[in-house]
Task: inverse folding
């Protein structure tokens, strides 16, 4: 189902045909910024593998599309692999170069939060590079995330050290009720 978004865009679930655009958007941020701890952009085959790993788990991967063009994307991944983490997801958001600051990132994150809540997840974590990433920190704060801690200088990229800012928000009942566990 499509949802309206700012900048004349709509949000919809990802399709394999979006992979070239997603690969380009991510490569720009890997090369130029600190939002990703990767230093070499993955190719389309690797992005396809990552995308299928998310969708195979039934987790949401959304794209913001204007006309035929993908201008941003966001997805939820398992926060960590050990089983007790299974009600916690980690989000990632990337907006195309030149499309930032118009609300697309916020719209993607709001929709991701809604979908993960409906799926029964209870916490969403953002692992943000870097403390100076005012865009990402602002987008998450605007969607109800609070800073849970900073891991200082855990990354080294573009010739300098950079931090991980951990932000978190509860989904649905959060820790107020026991989760609905399909294995119970
Ligand atoms: C972080 C990112 C996804 C934000 O997307 P966006 O579409 O530019 O964000 P929005 O326009 O929805 O901004 C929402 C809020 O964030 C803040 N914000 C966004 N960009 C900002 C900037 N450059 N400087 C200061 N604040 C900023 C503002 O508070 C804004 O609130 P407002 O609407 O009241 O002004 C985008 O900049 C991006 O792709 N960055 C590089 C990759 C990255 O770091 N991703 C996050 C990985 S967790």
Result:
């Amino acid at each position: 189902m499509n949802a309206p978004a700012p900048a004349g865009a709509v949000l919809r679930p990802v399709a394999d045909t979006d992979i070239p655009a997603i690969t380009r958007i991510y490569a720009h941020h890997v090369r130029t910024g600190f939002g990703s701890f990767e230093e070499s952009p993955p190719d389309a085959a690797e992005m396809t593998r990552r995308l299928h790993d998310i969708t195979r788990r039934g987790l949401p991967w959304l794209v913001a599309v204007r006309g035929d063009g993908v201008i941003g994307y966001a997805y939820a991944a398992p926060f960590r692999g050990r089983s007790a983490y299974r009600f916690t997801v980690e989000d990632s958001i990337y907006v195309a170069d030149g499309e930032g600051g118009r609300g697309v990132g916020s719209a993607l994150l709001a929709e991701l939060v809604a979908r993960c809540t409906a799926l029964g997840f209870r916490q969403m974590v953002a692992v943000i590079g870097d403390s100076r990433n005012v865009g990402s920190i602002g987008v998450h704060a605007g969607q109800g995330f609070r800073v849970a801690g900073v891991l200082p200088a855990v990354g080294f990229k573009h010739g300098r050290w950079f931090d991980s800012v951990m932000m978190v928000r509860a989904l649905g009942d959060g820790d107020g009720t026991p989760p609905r566990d399909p294995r119970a």
About this structure: Residues 19 and 96 are 13 Å apart (CA to CA). Residues 29, 33, 35, 92-95, 100-106, 126, 128, 133-136, 138-139, 142 surround coenzyme A (CB under 6 Å). DSSP finds four helices and eight strands in the chain.
